[in-house]
Amino acid sequence: MPPVPFPLGPPPPPLGAPLVRRDAREKAGGAARYAAEHTPPGCAYAWPVPATVARGRITAVDTTEALALPGVCAVLTHHNAPRLVTPDDPTTAPLQDERIPHRGWYVALAVADSLEEARAAAEAVRLSYDTAGHDVRLTADHPRLSTPEQVNGGYPGTRERGDFDAAFAAAPATVDATYTVPPLHNHPMEPHASTARWHDGHLTVHDSSQGSTRVRDDLAALFGLGKDDVTVISEHVGGGFGSKGTPRPQVVLATMAALLTGRPVKLALPRRQMPAAVGHRAPTLQRVRLGAGTDGVITALAHECVTHTSTITEFVEQAAVPARVMYRSPNSRTTHRVAALDVPTPSWMRAPGEAPGMYALESAVDELAVLLDIDPVELRVRNEPETEPDSGLAFSSRHLVECLRAGADRFGWLPRDPRPGVRREGNLLLGTGVAASTYPVYIVGSEAEAHAAADGGYRIRINATDIGTGARTVLAQVAAAALGAPEERVRIEIGDSDLPPAFLAGGSAGTGSWGWAVHKAATALAARLREHQGPLSPRGITVTADTHQETAEPSPYARHSFGAQFAEVQVDTVTGEVRVRRLLGMFAAGHILNARTARSQFTGGMTMGLGMALTEGSGLDPAFGDFTECDLASYHVPACADAPAIEAHWLDEDDPHLNPMGSKGIGEIGIVGTAAAIANAVRHATGVRLRDLPLTPDKVLPRLAP
User: Fold this and answer.
1) How far apart are CA 596 and CA 601, in angstroms?
2) 7 vs 1, 79, 193, 486, 568, CA distance in Å?
């Protein structure tokens, strides 16, 4: 084999090594620049004006007072805003007409020389409305409920196998319970923000987005531009959790304002406006029915979900879909019904469908275990399917039983007295709970470029997005392994729509999708280098790779990550306060590519699941039509004091049916089983089954025995 034209140095660390994030010092030192931290010369600032009615239309707009204020250069309304090409998603077309579909819908935008002047101008805009009756209240028997053909992810809205009604009626043991999850909000640390600038007909936008390729494509379509006329940069993103997966109003408003004023315009959404503007996890009312023999083997399973969507566009949380995957169930019914209400459009929030759906299913499984006096871990093991129940496909890998067994050993699950309320420390009742988790494997075609320079360095270019997951670091590891080169010689360029296009950072699909393209490009480059004779020219060697053909092929396997979460809680009998003492997760998610960043993802997901269980919740005010918990003072995200010692462990799966790295997504499975594990632990501590999240003291205390 001909030698590589320059020395490679020491071999790269193996995939899985806990390398430190490449951007750690930048972020810790404040050098990383986010969307709102780009301030081109002459930059103006914008502040949006939300509607203050829940449904109706604008009858008059008076901007006289606002325009007279110092520093104000424009106020955009539906009268003077640039006209947009009608999009598939109407939420990305603000200020186009007088209609108000929900409270918080943007009706104007003030632009000024400073942020303070823009805010003052926004408060001075006067609007009159013709209001109409509104409905924001979801009920299980809402008259406008309908059955969608498809739900989020493209899954069928309804699936039936066998004869559920007959099997349930004949089952010796049955559970029939309804579980509720309120609206939840993503609330990333960095608010949704954009800085837009037009120059010689070219639009450049710095946007807080989970995928700048998608934002570029949508902006080009909205403004009637070619894709080459738009550049969207998302270099650093301070979290998204799904809410930045598609373009949001701020990027369109900033672009419109920059076009109208001829100046760069910066817009960062105020925190209190975000719940109405950037999507939310829709509330769910979930009825779960389980029928089983006295041995605990499930013979009938029904999971029926009711949720809401907006009148603008339909989004249906696929909460019943995980029940099609988890357990043997020869007689099964999984359905979704949705009511279009006068609410903001719901959207993705970390593990959409799986997080609320598995809370209900895993709570019901725990209720069945209690009913039959079978250990909850053992009950789940007894219902392990040989193939995916819904499709009949073989699993590419499924090590849920191993996760349950290994997690139980690490947690110290046994010996466990199953009787509730028997462990006590003064006023504190103690209990433990377990839940299983699953998340599908998504892999989407992407493109990547690999370059070898004459000085011995490498460059990888792909429009991936790092939303705090460590994508830069892991992709460098993938490239280094394929090249057989030291990791420090690999430079990564991501977060720019001018780079080779790639799928967004969402659905836990990022690393699997981007890594496949990077691996393919780096492997091809290594082959070219082996064939090359002599030193490289100053131009070096560049190869490109595209994985759309490979990823388009349907897999003959059902591909999922699995896990088990264990929780220990204390319940204060005086205050009703629930505290988590310990959380432990054991996961089977393919080959782990970086142990350090993976542990961060798992523990972050479990922390978010803790919030879902105990602190996070929002309600829609039926009179005013808005979210009552709309900021971080009223919407309670877990703080450091709420998060106990959280352990994350994993089995290193060898699954050859995924991608060249053998990896599955890990960003979302951590949240999936956590809320149910905590709720099941609360039941074990108190003997009281609470089915309405979050488990706040006002719900817990009245149910405790005096």
Assistant:
1) 9
2) 15, 65, 44, 10, 53
> Which of 462, 211, 146, 513 minimizes the C-alpha distance to 348?
211
DSSP string, 8-62: --SPPPPTB--PPPTTHHHHHHT----GGG---TT-EEEEEEE-SSSSEEEEEEE
> pTM value?
0.97
Does the active-site annotation cover 668? Answer: yes
Quick one: which H or E segment has residue 110?
strand 106-112
Structure tokens at 113: 């020389």
pLDDT at 6 over 90: no
Where are any strands of DSSP class E within 423-577? 423-425, 428-440, 447-452, 458-461, 490-493, 541-546, 557-558, 560-572
Extended strands (E) in 311-427: 331-341, 394-395, 423-425
Can you tell me the distance from the alpha carbon of 337 to that of 316, in angstroms, rounded to the nearest whole number?
8
Which residues does 45 contact at the CB level (< 8 Å), separation at least 6? 111, 112, 113, 114, 115, 117, 118, 265, 266, 267
Q: Do residues 148 and 320 make contact, with C-beta atoms less than 8 angstroms apart? A: no
Exposed/middle/buried for residue 87 (C-beta within 10 Å: 0-12, 13-18, 19+): middle
Give me the residues paired with residue 560 across strands. Answer: 440
The rounded distance, in Å, linking the Cα atoms of 524 and 529 is 9
**CA distance to 34, 181, 335, 672, per residue, from 618 (Å):** 28, 10, 25, 19
Q: Give me the DSSP letters along 332-360.
A: EEEEEEEEEESSPPP---SSTTHHHHHHH
Of 169, 147, 64, residue with least CA distance to 108: 64
Say which of 117, 449, 629, 668 is annotated catalytic.
668
Separation in Å, CA 230 to CA 33, 292, 503: 20, 58, 18
**Residue the block writes with tokens 């934002």:** 215
Measured from the Cβ of residue 225, the count of other Cβ atoms closer than 10 Å reads 16
Q: How confident is the model at residue 9, as a pLDDT?
A: 62
Please determine, for residue 5, whether its predicted confidence score (pLDDT) is greater than 90.
no
Residues in the chain: 706
Please provide residue 517's backbone torsions phi and psi, each rounded to the nearest 5 degrees: -65, -40
Stated as kind and residue range, the H or E segment containing 259 is helix 249-261
CA separation for the pair 647, 73 (Å, rounded) = 53
Kindly list the distances between the CA atom of residue 701 and the CA atoms of 509, 575, 576, 634, in Å, as whole numbers in the listed order: 41, 7, 4, 21
Cα distances (angstroms) measured from residue 45 to each of 133, 190, 219, 585 = 35, 17, 20, 45
pLDDT tier, 138 (very low <50, low <70, confident <90, very high otherwise) = very high
* Burial (0-12, 13-18, 19+ Cβ within 10 Å), 359: buried
